[in-house]
Amino acid sequence: MTIPSGNELLILDSYFDANVQLVYQFSNQLSIYARGNNLLGNNYQEWANYKVQGAQGMLGASYKFDW
After folding, report:
1. Residue 20, SS3?
2. pLDDT tens digit string along 25-40?
3. Greatest CA span in the chain, whole angstroms?
């Protein structure tokens, strides 16, 4: 892909991005979550000359202190 100069219009290819987020809440204070982004690992450009990262995953827990 070439870098556009000036006010040149650049049309990017279409893409499909699959994301998911799951949350399980044990109580009002404690929950766990899992999140996945770009699960298909597609290599596309959302903005001109800026490629997205590959498949990503994150696990975590949340605790709300009741002060």
Report:
1. strand
2. 999 999 999 999 888 8
3. 56
